[in-house]
Write a structure and sequence with these properties.
Blueprint lengths: L1 H13 L8 H17 L10 E5 L14 H14 L3 E2 L8 E21 L4 H6 L14 E21 L5 E4 L4 E11 L2 E6 L6 E3 L5 E2 L24 E3 L2 E3 L27 H28 L1
Parallel strand pairs: 1-2, 1-3
Antiparallel strand pairs: 3-4, 4-5, 4-6, 6-7, 7-8, 8-9, 10-11
């Protein structure tokens, strides 16, 4: 009994932390799993081709909150555009049909307690003795506790020729997992970590430590450079532009197509001189012909 009292007092002295809502964490974990699954899909073999994305097998999938089929479809379309695919609104206008599907989209919760679990063994024992006072149930005494939320997503796609129906490409099947973890030690916490956070932090404070593992899109051999699905990227006429730019209009990495020199404006001086000389020869030609006819007479 003394051990129980000491444990309760030490927990009270150390402090206690509670997370009231987990809506944002739930959405972050699920969307992170979707992003990780999509960013490893490389559509660059279909670059430059007109494609139509058939999302009929994805729309029926319901996810957690706002992370649903619409979020998956938008992410896949973004990845296709970044790879240079020319998306069409109608299947009749496309050379290639890309079909997507979802195999997994959900999350699990886990909780581990290090200490004495809640039980009513004392109450049961006291009830066996006559005229004994009733004793309350023994509350949970946790020296440390961890709650973990783990979300998984499995997304795949394949492409085929619209007219011949011959297969052209497939992404392969792989699943991605995202995690969020909260830990309490002697009532202090939660210390929040997991793949959705850059560093482990103490909730409600600026205390952070550790570092998030690097992420990025697949980097296979291809003439078109890979675009990181999770990174900000500019495009120059449909091609990813990784050069440093300034401010204002230069932030939008697009430039108008330059007109040839012979279409208005200041042209090449050498070309202009050549044109003037050709015109002079045409003008002198009739005069020379008339002079030759005069000599013959």
């Amino acid at each position: 009994m003394a051990l129980i009292l000491i444990s309760v007092l030490s927990v009270g002295i150390c402090g206690c932390g509670t997370t009231r809502e987990n809506v944002a964490t739930s959405q972050l974990v699920t969307s992170e799993a979707v992003d990780l699954s999509i960013q490893h899909m490389d559509f660059r073999p279909l670059s430059g081709r007109t494609v139509y994305f058939d999302s009929g097998y994805i729309r029926a999938v319901k996810g957690d909150g706002i992370v649903n089929s619409d979020y998956v479809i938008s992410g896949l379309r973004q990845q296709m555009l970044a790879a240079g695919c020319l998306l069409q609104d109608s299947a009749q206008d496309a050379e290639i049909i890309i079909e997507g599907r979802i195999g997994t989209l959900g999350a699990d919760n886990h909780m581990v307690t290090y200490g004495i679990p809640e039980n009513n063994s004392l109450t049961s024992a006291a009830s066996l003795l006559p005229n004994s006072p009733s004793l309350p149930a023994l509350p949970e005494i946790a020296f440390a506790k961890r709650e973990a939320r783990e979300a998984a997503a499995k997304i795949a796609a394949f492409a085929y020729d619209r007219e011949t129906r011959q297969p052209l490409w497939q992404s392969g099947v792989r699943h991605s997992v995202a995690t969020a973890k909260s830990t309490w030690v002697m009532g202090i916490g939660p210390f929040q970590g997991g793949s959705i956070r850059d560093k482990t932090k103490l909730a409600g404070s600026g205390f952070r430590f550790g570092r998030r593992s690097a992420t990025g899109s697949t980097n296979q051999s291809n003439d078109r450079p890979a675009v990181d699905y999770t990174a900000e990227t500019r495009f120059n006429q449909g091609w990813p532009d990784f050069s440093d730019v300034g401010h204002g209009a230069e932030m939008i990495a697009s430039s108008p197509v330059e007109k040839p020199d012979n279409q208005g404006g200041d042209g090449d001086p050498a070309a202009e001189n050549a044109g003037e000389q050709a015109a002079e020869k045409v003008a002198e030609a009739p005069a020379s012909d008339s002079a030759e006819k005069t000599k013959q007479r």
